[in-house]
Write a structure and sequence with these properties.
The chain is an alpha/beta fold. It contains 21 helices and 14 strands. Helix 15 (407-424) packs antiparallel against helix 16.
Amino acid sequence: MRPAPALAVGGRTLANILSATEWILPTPATQVHTVSVLPSHSSKETAKVRFGNFAFSNITTAPKSSGGKGKEQGILRFDMVRDDLLHPLANGNKARKLDALLPLLRRRGATDLITCGGCQSAHAAAVAVHCAEWGIRSHLLLRGEQLDVPTGYNLISLMFGNVTYAAWSVYAHRDEMLYEHAMKVASTNGTVLWADDIVRDDFAVDEEILCENDSRRVVIVKEGAGTVQALLGVMRLVEHLSNLSSFQKDEEIHIVVDAGTGTTAVGLALGAVCLGLHWRVTAVMLADTLERYRELEKSLISDFKGLCHEDCRDMIRADGLVYWVDRFLPRKFGKVLSGEIATCRHVAQQTGILLDPVYTLAAWEQAVDLCRVDSRGAKVVMIHTGGTLGLFGLAQRYPQHFTAANEQSKIVFTYCKVACALLLSGWNLDDYVQTTHILVEMGVYFQIQDDYLDCFGDPEDMGKIGTDIEDYKCSWLFVQALACVDEKQKDILFENYGKSDPACVEKVKALYKELNLEVSLCSKH
C-alpha cells in the first residue's frame, strides 16, 4: 500500500486530534508478544486439532532455554497485540471503541446510556463496566431469555448494568426497541439522543452540557458502537504501535483482525493511511456479507472525511482500505465447529494466550497462514480483540465441546466400566486380555452406530436433531466417504460439509447414500 502523508483533521493533524481527545483508558499502551510457528509431529491428542501439526511458542514470555527471546533467522513467527490484557473485565476492541466515545457522551451531559447485544455480548458488558467507572447509568437490552445460571459476559452485564431481556421478535427491530426503552428511562422530563448525532454535532459545538433539575439525558449507542468516534480509539492504538521500536515507520506490516461489526478494521486502516504507514489490514468476516462490510467501510470513511480539512479529503479513498476475507471454514455467526475448542486449548497450553472460537481463533488461523505463505516477507501482526469471557457462554451452549466425551473416550469408557468391575471383584486384568479386545470392539460399534443415527436416524425416536455434518465432525461416515470418493465426489463433500445450510446437509447425505455407506454399515455390523 502506498503511504499517504499525515492527514489533517479539521485543520489539525491526526496526532493533534488524538492528543486533544479525552479517553477512558489512561494510556494506549498494550503488550506485544511474538509467537513462533514450528512444524511438529502430530500426536493422537493433536490429530483432530486444526494446526495440530504445528507447535507454537510465546517467544516473549518463554525462558531462553525454551526458545524465548530468540532471534533465530528462518523461524516462522508473527506478533500479537495483546489488547485482551487492557482491562480485567472489559478489554479488547470493545474498550478501544469506547475509549473516546464515553468521555464525549459524559461531557455532552449523558446521565444514562442504552445499548443492546446478545445474551453474552462483550460490547454490552464493556459498556456496563466502563459506564460504572465513569458515573453513567447503563441500560442493556440483551437478546433472548435470562440464563438459569448467569456466567461470562452475561454475569458482568448483570453486575454492572441494568439488564432487560428482549424477545428475538422484538430485537429484530433494534432501533425501535432502543428508542422505546430510552423514552421509558427518560420519563416525561428527560431527553433522548442518539450517540451518532452527538458525535457529528460535537465538532461543531464544543461545550459541556449539564442537566438541570435532575432531568435525565439518555443516549442511545447502537449495537457494537460502530461510530466515527469509535474509530478514534482504534486510531490511537495505531499511533501507539507506530511509535514502538519493534514497528519501523517504513516497515511493511500485515495487520490481521477478526471482524464482527468491522469498525475496528476500518479504524486500523484509516489510522495507517493518516499516519503514512505501510500497513495492509486484513479483516476476517464473521457476522455479515462482503457487500455489507464494504458498505460499512464506505460509510465510516465518509463520516471520517467529514471531519477532515478540505485539502485532505481527497487523500483518503472512499473505500477499499480494508482487505476483507472469509473465514477458512465459513459458518453461521456464533457457531462453533468440532475441534475448535480443542484448537483453542492447544494454543493456550503452548503459548499462554487464550483465544475464543467465534472471534480470535479466526484471526489466529489467518495470521498463521499468512506467516507461512506470504512471499513478500511482510511482518504479520494479529490484533487480539479480547472476548475470552465468552468461553463461559459457549461452554453452556456447546457443552459437548468442553467435555472428554469424544470418540476415543467413549470407546475407552466402555472398557473401563467392565475393567473396574473386575478389579473390584478381585480379578487380575492380565488374565482377561481378550476382554479388552471385545470391549473396544463394542465401543467402536457404539460410536459408529451413534454417527449413523445422527445422520439417518429419526429425530422423534432419538429425541434430538443430528448436527454432525453441520458441526464438521470427524464421524465414521465422513471417514468412510473419504476412503472411497472420486475427485468429483470429494469436491462435493468438502464444498458442503460443515455448513448449516439445509441444502448442503442434504447433498452430503445424498453422497453418503450414493456411496452405499448405509448398506455398508448394515452388512458389516
